[in-house]
Structures are given as C-alpha cells and as structure tokens.
Recover the amino acids of this structure.
C-alpha cells in the first residue's frame, strides 16, 4: 500500500533536501559570481524556482497517487519512461554519494582531522539505510523533526552572527554597472536550488495534499530568504576578501567568530556542525529512499530491502571513488548539470505534455 | 533472529559512540594556553614560546567542582627552528602528551618579529591549519615573547589569560579595539591597507596595554600609537569609543571639568573632486560631565563654551592622528579604504590606495552635546 505524507512533512523534507549541502559554499559561490549584489541574483533564482515548484507540484498533483515511473509510462510509453526514471535514479545516486563524500571531506578538514573518510561515510550510510528501511512515513517524520530543529538552529546562529556584523562589508548593495553580471550569475547559482525533483517519488493525494502547490511555493520563498540572510550574515562578518579566499566558508566564518558572552555556546562552528549534519543526513535519507523506490518501480519483483542494501553499497563505493577533494568538487559540478536536466528540463517537458494532453481532451 | 539483530545494533552503536577517532581524555592532552612568536638565530629562524596548562584536581575553591580537573597553573615552553615547521617539530619533542591548540587564548608577537619578517605568515598558518582557532586574539609585545611568558604576574593565572582578559575588558569599555586572526587576515587580503593591533607589555607585574602597533600592508610593524593617542584612534575605529578627559572650563579658567565623551554616530563620506580624493568624517558624540575638579557654581551659560572646547580639542586630535598616518605611517590603518571602495567601487579598482592615501584631503566635523551633568547642579542664571 502506498504511504502518503502530510503537506508539512513534504515542505520540511524539501527544505532538508534543498538546503542540505547547497549552503556549505553558498556565500562563496555568490560572491565570486556577483559580488556584494548577490542578493539580486538570489531573488531572481528564487522567483524562477518558485515557478518550477508550481510546475513540479502540478505534475505530481494531477497524477494522483502515482510516482514518476507510473505516469511517465502513461505519458510517453514504457521505453522513454524507463530512460527518464533511470536518469533520475542515476542523478539521485550520484548527487547523494558525492555530497556525502564532500561533506565528510569538510568534516575531516575542520573537525575530524584524523578520522578516515570511509569511517565517516560508513556511519552516515549505515544510519541512513536503517532510516530508509522504515519507508516513507519514517522519512517524513524524520524530516519533520530534524528540519524544525535545523531551521531554529540556523536562525539562532544567523541572529548571533548579525550581532557581529559590519555594515560596511555588505555594501555596495547594488552597482548599476554590474547588472549584466547579476543576471549572468543566475546560471552559476542553480545548484543550491536543486532538490525539488524529490517530489516526483512522493505520491500526492488530492484529499490529503490539497494546498501542496501553495505550500511548496512558499517553502521555496522561505529558502530563498534564508539563503539571502545567510549570504548577508557571512559577508557582513568576513567581508568579500575572506570569503573569496577560503573553502567551506560558513564553517570558516563561524570558526573565526568568538561570541564571548555566549559562554558554553561560544563555539558557534560546533553548533552549526550539529545542524548541518542533521540537515545533510535527512537529505541523504531522502535521496536514498528515492533511488530505492524508483528502482523498485522498474523492477517490482525484487524485494525492496535487497534493493536498498545494494543501492547503499553502490552509493558507498561511489562516495569513495574520487581520489581527491578536487575530483569530488568537479564531479559535483558535472552532476549538477544532470540535476539541471532532471530538475528543470524534464519537468518542463512533462508539464507542457500534460497541458497539451489536457487541451486535447477538452 | 530479532534478538541477534538488536544485539548487533547495540554493539555497533556502542562502538560508534565511543567518540572521535583521535579521542583522548583531557588529562592526556597538552593544552596550549598562549603562543609567542619571536625571531631566533639572529633573525634567521623562529622561536615559539608560550604557556601550557597544568591540570590539577580542583579543591573546590574558585568555583571549581571538587574532584574535577581544572587549570591550576601553567608552565612555559620554548622551541626554536629555522622555520615554523622545524620549531613546531622541536616543540613536539619537548611535550609529554599530544598537543591540543583549540584552547589557545592569545598569540603574542615580539616587537622585533613584527618588524621583520612580519606577522602574516603566522596568521596564514593559523587560518589554514586544522586545530587552531582563527578567533584568537593577537597582540605585539614590547619585549621578547620568551621574557614575557616567563614574567611573574600577580593578577591572573597565566599570561595568556591575562592578555585575553585585559584586551576584552578594555574593548567592552570602549577603550580598545582588538583584532582576531580572522579580522587581521581580512585586512591583509585587502592588500593596500594597514591595521592596528594592541601593543602590550608588563608593567608592575601585570599585563598592560601600551598602545597600538601600526602594521603595514605587508604586516610589518612600522610604528606605535602611544597610550595618550589611543582614545582618539578609537573614535575612528571602535563602535563604542569612550574618552574620559578633563577640560578647562572656558567660563572659569581655574576650573577643570571631567567629561566622559562617547561616540554616538560616525559617518564617513568619501568623494572625488578634481581628481583628488576627499574624505569627510562626521563624529557625533555624547558628552557627560562626571564631576568638577573644584567647587564652583556653574550656570547654563557655561555649557555651550564647554561643548565647543570639547569639539575643538577632539577635532584637532583626530586631524593630528590622521595626519600622522598620512605623513609618518604612510598607510591607511583606519579602514577608510573600505568606505571609499563601497562609495566609489569603479575608481577604487583603478587606483592604488596605498599611493593615494598620503594625498587625501580630510575634513573632520565634531558635534557634541552635553546630555548629562551627573550630580552637578547647573543653575539657570
């Protein structure tokens, strides 16, 4: 029997997936491509992805109780549907394994200097596999609890960061000579907004998820606002020079911050580590679940748990494949291009197909 | 089967929960409290000195819990080498336990080391290496750091604690602006500017702030801003600058009045007129009479001239210290470059701020209002 999630669970799950790894280097990516006026680029991208949220939820909502493989088969036939689903499987597998690898590298760089990468990854995969084995309801509830903690935690950290902010660092807010740069850099900042496509494997129900479109669009708006305040808070502390010269910039900025009066919470980087790990863990669970479910749709005869075990092992191996941090980074960049196809191109094609078919019927 | 599964899960979780890979109990760690960096081998090498914590069981006093480990005192270390790596390797040979640098409170550079070769390499080391905190405070000492850390002080448990506590409390009161390694790195990366860091020494067996060390754009010590000029420099740098000074009362030449002046708002406006750069600084200050030196009856007509004399004095001091930075230091150490870059981004990209800085025309406007006379009665007539 299909399991459904509530609207709140879906929006918080979406938050976990999109914010997950996207923010680790977000301020750096923004500053490098559009300087202190990066908030304009973020607003443009947020508006575009609010439209994409509408597109994706429209497709899913109008194919009630179905997930990607089922309705693409109805729309395009078995072969194309298998190709599309395989593409999504490939994308989810790659992105989950690579961001987990990258996050483990960041952890190694900043906190767990002597811990081998395979050990950190093993813990992540082991726990994620256990969570996914409990099916969609467990993931929904996990996302609900974790994301609320993460949102509260991030907001707390941002508030503290703003107490140390220097207004001079975030100016100039807007340079008229840089408008073309702001527009061009929208393409460089797509990665943090990817992840919405996970809705394709969450079946929606017209009774349970009536206002899902509005909720998801509102979530994207909130994520956009969160991105802007994270960007401005980091920029206001580090200034443009520090941000462009360092890796894992949020960790680095928090490491350079000592809020003397917070006593036990002085080390904000430790606090951020807790929340970002919770966030990333949720997102890896969602991706792992998505991969398993989609494979299960194509190969219904094989037991879900067997698929889950194989997928986890394969993802673990993929995570260990890149030989260096640079290789992982370039692999993430390449995979995010695949993400653009899965998160933007295919949904728009499906949306148009559905609209055309609907008109034909009328 | 279910029982076995539970058993395995508990076993694996208990293995994972034992802690970090390199977990070591606190009493099996060598905790560095402070680090000093100095020249060695006649300037051809580097010397690390500093303090490590001596852990002992707390006896319950000073707020410590009985039986828990606490820092009871510290012991000093010195190690030399031709570069940081060699000095560090020699340091590792001399400590009995694994080093833990995460609790370091301050880094002090000797005056000679800050002059030549400069402090940027050490800042890079801390910024990039695992285990250090870039929120560390930095200072320059007037004596070799080895001497500094071996001095006996009476008012704190270690030199590192004393440096941190002194700098922080002065900063909270608006008497000092300190820099962390992270902030100094930001100035270094801006390339064309200098920066100020606290200049400290030991006076009367206590850590004492002696002024600001003026660092050039390549992070070398070029001059010192002395104690009597610090409060003026703070007006240009600090968010909560405060001055406590006595002023001659213009209406009663024999009378001195102690006035506390605090910064309300600082506005820095930059412009380009006829190819030359102008910077206008507006200082809006709040003044409070603390007490008169002698008993005299004051009325409201005394107030305005006093405000005027405060404004004139501060304006003169600020202009003098800016002039000094232009003529003697020849470097912008008051962060004007950031204001100029924000207000004229296109021009900033084309010019060399360091070369332009000595020719900039500064205008300083000081405005103050006596908002409070404390317990002193001011008569209407």
């Amino acid at each position: 029997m299909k399991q459904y999630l509530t609207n709140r669970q879906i929006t918080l799950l979406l938050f976990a997936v999109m914010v997950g790894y996207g923010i680790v280097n977000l301020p750096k990516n923004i500053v490098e491509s559009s300087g202190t006026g990066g908030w304009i680029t973020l607003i443009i991208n947020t508006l575009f992805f609010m439209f994409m949220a509408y597109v994706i939820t429209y497709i899913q909502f109008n194919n009630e109780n179905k997930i990607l493989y089922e309705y693409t088969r109805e729309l395009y036939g078995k072969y194309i549907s298998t190709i599309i689903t395989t593409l999504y499987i490939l994308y989810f597998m790659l992105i989950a394994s690579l961001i987990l690898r990258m996050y483990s590298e960041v952890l190694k760089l900043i906190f767990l200097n002597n811990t081998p990468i395979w050990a950190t990854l093993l813990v992540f995969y082991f726990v994620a596999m256990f969570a996914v084995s409990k099916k969609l309801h467990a993931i929904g509830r996990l996302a609900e609890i974790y994301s609320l903690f993460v949102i509260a935690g991030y907001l707390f950290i941002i508030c503290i960061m703003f107490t140390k902010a220097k207004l001079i660092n975030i100016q100039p807010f807007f340079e008229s000579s840089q408008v073309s740069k702001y527009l061009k850099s929208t393409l460089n900042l797509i990665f943090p907004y990817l992840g919405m496509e996970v809705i394709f494997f969450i079946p929606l129900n017209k009774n349970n998820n009536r206002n899902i479109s509005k909720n998801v669009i509102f979530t994207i708006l909130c994520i956009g606002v969160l991105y802007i305040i994270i960007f401005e808070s980091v920029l206001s502390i580090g200034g443009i020079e520090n941000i462009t010269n360092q890796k894992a910039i949020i960790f680095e900025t928090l490491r350079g911050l000592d809020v003397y009066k917070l006593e036990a919470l002085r080390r904000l980087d430790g606090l951020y580590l807790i929340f970002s790990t919770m966030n990333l863990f949720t997102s890896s669970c969602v991706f792992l679940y998505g991969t398993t479910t989609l494979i299960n749709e194509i190969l219904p005869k094989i037991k879900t748990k067997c698929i889950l075990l194989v997928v986890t092992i394969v993802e673990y191996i993929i995570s260990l494949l890149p030989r260096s941090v640079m290789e992982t980074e370039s692999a993430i960049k390449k995979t995010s291009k695949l993400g653009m196809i899965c998160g933007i191109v295919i949904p728009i094609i499906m949306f148009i197909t559905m609209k055309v078919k609907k008109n034909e019927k009328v | 089967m279910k029982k076995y599964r539970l058993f395995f899960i508990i076993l694996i979780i208990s293995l994972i929960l034992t802690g970090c890979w390199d977990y070591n109990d606190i009493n099996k760690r060598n905790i560095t409290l402070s680090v000093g960096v100095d020249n060695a081998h006649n300037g051809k090498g580097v010397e690390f000195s500093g303090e490590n914590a001596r852990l002992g069981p707390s006896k319950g006093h000073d707020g410590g819990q009985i039986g828990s480990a606490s820092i009871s005192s510290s012991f000093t270390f010195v190690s030399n080498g031709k570069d940081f790596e060699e000095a560090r390797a020699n340091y590792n040979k001399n400590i009995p336990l694994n080093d833990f640098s995460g609790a370091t409170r301050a880094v002090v550079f000797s005056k000679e080391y800050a002059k030549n070769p400069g402090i940027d390499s050490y800042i890079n080391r801390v910024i990039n290496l695992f285990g250090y905190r870039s929120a560390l405070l930095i200072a320059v000492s007037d004596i070799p750091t080895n001497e500094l850390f071996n001095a006996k002080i009476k008012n704190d448990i270690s030199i590192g604690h004393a440096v941190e506590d002194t700098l922080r409390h002065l900063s909270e009161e608006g008497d000092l602006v300190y820099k962390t390694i992270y902030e100094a790195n930001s100035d270094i990366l801006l390339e064309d500017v200098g920066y100020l860091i606290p200049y400290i020494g030991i006076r009367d067996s206590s850590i004492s702030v002696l002024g600001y060390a003026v660092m050039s754009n390549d992070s070398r010590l070029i001059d010192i801003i002395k104690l009597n000029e610090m409060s003026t420099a703070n007006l240009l740098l600090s968010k909560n600058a405060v001055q406590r000074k006595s002023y001659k009362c213009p209406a009663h030449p024999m009378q001195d009045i102690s006035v506390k002046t605090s910064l309300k708002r600082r506005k820095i406006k930059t412009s380009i007129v006829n190819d030359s750069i102008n910077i206008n600084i507006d200082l809006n200050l709040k003044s409070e009479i603390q007490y008169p030196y002698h008993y005299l009856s004051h009325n409201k007509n005394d107030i305005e001239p006093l405000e005027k004399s405060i404004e004139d004095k501060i304006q003169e001091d600020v202009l003098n210290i800016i002039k000094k930075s232009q003529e003697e230091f020849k470097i912008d150490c008051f962060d004007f470059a950031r204001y100029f870059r924000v207000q004229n981004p296109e021009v900033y990209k084309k010019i060399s701020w360091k070369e332009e800085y000595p020719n900039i025309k500064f205008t300083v406007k000081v405005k103050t209002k006596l908002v409070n006379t404390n317990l002193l009665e001011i008569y209407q007539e």
Remarks:
- Chain A has one domain: 22-361.
